Amino acid sequence: MKGYSIKEIGEKSAIAKGVDLNISLKDSVNIAHHLRGKKLTHAREIIDRAIKKEIPIPYFRYLDSVSHRKGKVGPGRFPVKALKAFRDVLDNAEANAEFKNLDTGNLVIVHISAYKGRMIKNYTPKAYGRSGGLNRDLITLEVVLEEEQA
Question: Would you say 59 and 76 are in contact if contact means Cβ atoms under 8 Å apart?
Answer without folding.
Answer: yes
